[in-house]
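pipeline/complex-builder :: batch 7 item 3
reading input block
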Amino acid sequence: MNEKSNAVLTVGFFTVIILIFTIADWLTGDRIYSENENRMLATRPKFSAETLLDGSFMEDYETYVTDQFVGRDTWVELKTRGDVLLQKKVINGVYLGEDDYLIEQHLSKDIKQEDVDKKIALLNGLVEKYGAKAMLIPTADNILSDKLPFQAEYFDQKQFLDRVEEVIGEENLINVYDTLKAHAREDIYYRTDHHWTTLGAYYGYVVWKKQAGNTAVITFDPDHLTTVTDEFLGTLHSKLNLPHRKDSIQTFPETMLKQPMITYDFQTVTYTYYEEKYLDTKNKYGYFLDDNHPFIEIETGYRRGRELVLLKNSYANCLVPLLANHYDKIYMIDLRYYNGKLDNLVDQYMTPGTDMLVLYDCIHFIEDFNYYK
Amino acid sequence: MVFSSVLFLFRFLPIFFILYFMTYLWPAARRMRNVILLLGSLFFYAWGEPVYVVLLLFSTLSDYVHGRLIGRFRERKVLAKVLLFTSILINLGVLGFFKYADFLLQGVNQLAGTNLPLFELPLPIGISFYTFQTMSYTIDVYRGEAKVQKNLLNFGVFVTMFPQLIAGPIVRYVDVQDDLRDHHGSIEDISYGIRRFIVGLAKKVLLANNLGLLWEEVLAVGPDNLNVLLGWLGIMAFAFQIYFDFSGYSDMAIGLGAIMGFRFPENFKYPYISCSVTEFWRRWHMTLGQWFRDYVYIPLGGNRKGLGRQVLNILIVWMLTGIWHGANWNFLLWGLWFAFFLILEKVGFGGLLDYLPKIYGFFYTALVVLLGWVIFAIEDMNGILTYVKAMFGFGAAGLYNGNALFLLKEYAVLLLVAVAASVPLVNTVANRLKKGGSGLAIAVRRFLEKVIPAVLLLASIAYIVDASYNPFLYFRF
């Protein structure tokens, strides 16, 4: 073979590579939603003289083409493998921790003190107005700090919780930091997801019960935890898209002793905390209370003479089945999705004998907590 | 449109080259190449600058007309000179208005305490590059070094050609005047061009972007909290980022040019192995250095009018070089910083360096260049001072901290790859293989020639698809 035919071969080889992907990309249809990334993908932008001249059509078109590029998830996996090859320990904002833990990275530099103070002041407003209590759950990077890579930084949530305690008063904060830390060797966080596990929620529940002085009808025993799936690959896995040890999702059988009646957004009624259908999807954590809803009303089936208004994010979903036996009714409000005025809603439910609990993980509390829309 | 995007690689590139290579099918279609190239380039530019594409066309037309007039009136010395003058005035006027007007107004406002309003216009993409290219044409026509281009299409192709329109290399008209009329990439040219393009793409996407993340991390710490280790780590990351970003872009441009049979000048020659600042500037952004040498330094008298005049000329050229990189004081300072060392080397230090073992020259140059990058990358004076202090242990935050160790470990492999990629090692091995005449050596080379670019291409696509982090640094200029 002479140099000329070698060149022909080289040109042909790379032409084919480019054309294969171009044609494959052209032939595959658009996806609306990426299950892996848990977000809507960009769609073909509308063309107009205005969007053409200000350049927004071109920008949107680029986002669209990149979002819809053929084999998107495989490319992301390939990129992660590249990073692993380069010995990187933090990839797409996720630490590759020891013992197969993927741990979301939260850095102090990304968190502004003034935002923190603002959120705490908002919380304090609820404490003063409704006697709310708060349970702000530290994320895995703080509790599992021993499993982080060498010298990996994290936003110190113990200090943050001390600050919250200072403002709203010790008696109003259910501080689970030390308890979770004491159980750090157990599986209290998922290895592939940013949530705490049912066991983690149980330890949180124990602290809550003790502090609230509530008497429980039911005793939960961690030895009874039942695995409903061991095929769970969560959100942190999605950010890397590498093959990884799978997580189990567990429940306490004691939570099913009484059948609850659950009304989602004043419409759909079900009779269980656990939605089996999610176990066949990527979003298996949605098993707990049907993923995210702006408003959920639960009739627990218990007669305890008390009700609970719960302002929460998804960390609460696996805890609520444990709280149920303390209340007749629980109203769960997810402020990210709830668009009405909070006061109107809450005043309707906050009768004497109703508790209010604010339950978030510390990071999302700082990022998302807001009831002024 | 940037080269390192899905849009370019899997939309523009295939469609453009399918159209372009259709002209290979009929001998008569050969004349269509420039039409396709011009339309493709205008589309490419308008995609990013739907409005300022008009400015590009205006520049093209102005220099085309001036070129023809200067050619026509070459015998009438005064008139030719006036025409050259108006051509330069228009070019510098456009560049000055878009790039420096606000900077000057701010300066006036500060000095005189006035409150003149600023224009606040965005800088048209690539304007610094294409005005320099077109100026080379009219000046060379005036000097009789370039032939007058009578064909507007051919001239339009010279100015707007998409491979180097946006970020260089700065192609002088004389370098491509013959190719413009009739360009034809042989199959070897195309093969070389593809591989060169992929190498550039990988430099940009795999090295520059990822090292840029390290620099961002250090920047986010802020100059006040920097320690020694972070300071050095950060500026080294920036040095590699800007090198691989810019030289990667040049590689892509040269590669795309080669596919169409153009031979663009080289722009970088392993700058970081230089053993003097003079040598560094012979290896870094070579086409810009040559441009200033040919059109400013030598016309000013260069080194032919005595040392005093030479020193002045160096100062002028380097102030201009600095300010070419951006309308801000720090770029002026950056130019003067290099002028100082270039003059130092001219008046004797260079001779001294020649006597010392090369390693001294290397570390001296590295230090000057790295400190230069601090001036370049951090735009305010206080920040620059604080950063440099921290590098030498006079900062508030000491020698190192956990974060510095984490980042060092996190980026150690990438930094080693960057070092390996910025010395001639790989090229030397490749050349040795090329010379090796044995059947095995040829087979190995031919195999690697395909596999390595293929791996680099796939890896680059993966990082492009994954990343929202994909800015071209040199778009600011």
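note: Chain B touches chain A through 49 residues (CB under 8 Å).
queue -> next item
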